[in-house]
Amino acid sequence: MRTIEWQHGTIVTIDQTKLPQETVILEMKNVIEVADAIKTMKIRGAPLLGAAASFTLALAAYHSKTENKAELINELEKAAEILKETRPTAVNLFWAIDKIMTKARDFSGNAKDLAASVVEEAQKIADEDVAANRLIGKHGAELIRDGDVILTHCNAGALATVDYGTALGVIRAAWEQGKKIRVIATETRPKLQGARLTTYELKRDGIPVTLITDNMVGYVMYKRLVDKVIVGADRIVKNAVINKIGTYTIAVLAKEHNIPFYVAAPKSTFDLSRSSTDVTIEERLSEEVTHIGSQMIAPKGVNVLNPAFDITPLKYVTSVICEGGVLRKEDFVKFEANL
Ligand code: MRU
After folding, report:
1. Which of 58, 70, 199, 290 has the greatest number of beta carbons closer than 10 A?
2. Does the N-terminal peptide bond of residue 260 adopt cis geometry, omega within 30 degrees of 0?
């Protein structure tokens, strides 16, 4: 099964807050339910957020009772507004909504045909994500040598996308080519996507993985235990890569130790007309830091900072791997014209 599927008017996905202990399948039929699942990170990962937002607009269209096209567009606009309030940083969510809404506003048929076209467009966005990840894997695998140890952060795998993954897509493709690679996964405090999701995916595929805590990255690099870093991205702007909190620390350490730092992301993550100061970095609840799971680890009432993402200036990025190929940062400006 793909991480997200459209099944006759229902979104079917997996509750990522329950993994790896439990595999709970979610079936959702309305916009509020999906918006809530995104806020609580049952659904997470930039490309998956794009696909989920697309299918949520498909839900709104599919279940609409109106036969009036203007009314249907109004309902879609309302659903889009709700979705845009869920998580601010991953651009894929906004990209997917804007793609579908632009098409809907320009649609010339009746309400019934418009609803069908929204469902079709959402499915296309999901299918294109899988195709993009396969290409990212193919291009990225060329950078990987037999025997490499690759460090990755957070979860940029099948669970963060519709299928296959971006950073883990590169790792999967290299593994499928027979390269005997090993992975070091950082746990990724506070939500533990690395410990819970990346190790789960890699173990399931039989790819050797070693889990470390986030503060061990300096040690493993100093000890020359890492050959390459590959991470995903929530947004690539003209001067930086915005990704899971902790990415910047890893990038600076990688530069200090002359370790290549690769970012794997589809073009739907590119936002090259903006720079890092234009982007809202999501701040999440303090409980995520004061607690591990349901266990409180800090004194009640302590001040907490909980940014979900950080900003890595492009000078730390060796290359970006996208479906179009492996891009050096100098190529971005030229590449933007062809997006
Ligand atoms: O807060 P999350 O779990 O949604 O953050 C996910 C990440 O930061 C991933 O690295 C990014 O979305 C790329 S996923 C292919």
Report:
1. 58
2. no
pLDDT tens-digit series, residues 228-275: 999 999 999 999 999 999 999 999 999 999 999 999 999 999 999 999
Separation of alpha carbons 226 and 259, rounded Å: 8
What are residue 233's DSSP bridge partners?
none
247 backbone φψ class: left, alpha, beta (φ>0; ψ -120 to 50): alpha
Nearest Cα neighbor of 320 from 278, 260, 273, 276 is 260
Q: Which protein residue's CA is at the shortest distance from atom 6 of ligand 1?
A: 45
Span from the CA of 187 to the centroid of ligand 1 (angstroms): 13
234 Cβ inside 6 Å of ligand 1: yes
CB 279 within 8 A of CB 242: yes
Q: Among residues 87, 151, 99, which one has the least CA distance to residue 123?
A: 99
User: Please, which residues have CB within 8 angstroms of residue 78's CB and are 6 or more apart in sequence?
Assistant: 60
Cα(48) to centroid of ligand 1, in Å?
9
Give the CA count within 13 Å in the CB-facing half-sphere of 289: 15
Distant-in-sequence, close-in-space partners of 204: CB < 8 Å, separation ≥ 6: none
